[in-house]
């Protein structure tokens, strides 16, 4: 369990704090901190504020992910999924939603619009080299491990 300080912003002060809806949930539900209802037209995208800012500990990130029910029932998802909140970011957590559905999707103040997963981050030290170890896959790119007859050797 990691402790994450959370600041409620004025336009989200009356909304419930993000929380895990079940004991086994991986994500905290994020809510829309909008003043007026929003109609997200088919094919449209919007940056939806949540009314919170975080102070993530060094070595952690927060991932903004879609809610599966919104995706299944309405075709609404997080456009840059998963969105990343870095540990040194102190601004408002917002969600880029897109409507892939056939009908406009209404968002009301306080609606659960996405989920937030707190996760550890590993930093890598990259070392330039002229040679990489050989593998069975090699440089086979997209589709190279898929069905027989699929594209082979596509660049990643």
Q: Layout of helices and strands, plus pairs?
A:
Blueprint: E1 6-8, E2 28-31, E3 38-40, E4 45-54, E5 60-65, H1 68-74, E6 76-78, E7 83-85, E8 92-99, E9 105-107, E10 112-120
Antiparallel strand pairs: 1-4, 2-10, 3-9, 4-8, 5-7, 5-10, 6-8
Provide a descriptive summary of the structure in words:
The model has no long low-confidence stretch (mean pLDDT 93). This protein has a single domain, classed as Distorted Sandwich (Deoxyuridine 5'-Triphosphate Nucleotidohydrolase, Chain A), CATH 2.70.40.10. It is 4% helix and 33% strand. It is mainly β. It has one helix at residues 68-74, and strands at 6-8, 28-31, 38-40, 45-54, 60-65, 76-78, 83-85, 92-99, 105-107, 112-120.
- The domain tally reads 1
CATH class type:
Mainly Beta
The portion of residues assigned to helices is: under 10%
Output the structural class: mainly beta
Count of helical regions: 1
Question: What is the CATH homologous superfamily assignment?
Answer: Deoxyuridine triphosphatase (dUTPase)
Family: Belongs to the dUTPase family.
Keywords: Hydrolase, Magnesium, Metal-binding, Nucleotide metabolism
Region (Disordered): 136-156
Enzyme class: hydrolase
Summarize the structure.
The chain has 156 residues and is mainly beta.
